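2024-03-11 09:14:02 DEBUG pipeline.ingest accepted 1 chain
2024-03-11 09:14:02 DEBUG pipeline.ingest length=271
2024-03-11 09:14:03 DEBUG pipeline.predict start
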Amino acid sequence: MKKIAFYGKGGIGKSTTAANVSVALSLQGKRVCQIGCDPKNDSTRLLLGHICRETVLDKVRTTDMDKIQAKDIVHTGFNGITCVEAGGPEPGVGCAGRGIIVALQLLDKLKAVPPVDVTLYDVLGDVVCGGFAMPIREGYAEEIYIVSSGELMSLYAANNIAKGIRRFASRGSVRLAGIIGNSRNTPGEKELLHAFAEKLNSRLVTFVPRDGIVNLAENQRQTVLQFAPECEQANVYKSLAETIWDNTALAVPTPMEFEELEELAAKFGRE
């Protein structure tokens, strides 16, 4: 079974990318589980057609732990994709990272997720909190994809994630599987992401162009592959899913110092 996680700066498009990849893999005949590790619990919205109405932490707050059943926290989305949302604490109360720890441990205890070919973790932000690092620290995910644009702060977050992967790679099997470029139409963006990936001892596995069809699909609570399966953007996600399935080019990353990252971004920003 492939155990994958998508990381990246908040708002960079991880959940959109993850959901479209999950659908593409399922349409290629793979059994897929997507686990949202974000307190907004919106990772699986496009797969379910609505915001997940019962997250793992919702159930933990309202039910005795020994009475929770797998069917309470595991949901079925488009084309049979297994969907789970870890959830988070009430706003202003508790630690969202801690919620991920509780959720993943409960899923293990209940053996809640049915047998699948791919489990994809969609994780909030960069690796600064132990909870958000848990999928890579505890071996839940082994192949890490970083979603990034060519914007400096997106690259900064990606570089921080690479530092976390390098730290945990020394004690386990987790590796950087590649950079997924999610375009913001910045100057020299694709070339910058290629150079950035090489600096990290990795590669740009795909460059997703900015396309209004993504927003149109999301407004209908669908992935692009559901909404417009024959469009060019859908083909991009299909190709990305194939690359992820076949990818064996895993590496321990070599993150940069911030000054070097700034210089790299400035170079391509001038071109």
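2024-03-11 09:14:41 DEBUG pipeline.report The two ends are 42 Å apart (CA to CA).
2024-03-11 09:14:41 DEBUG pipeline.predict end
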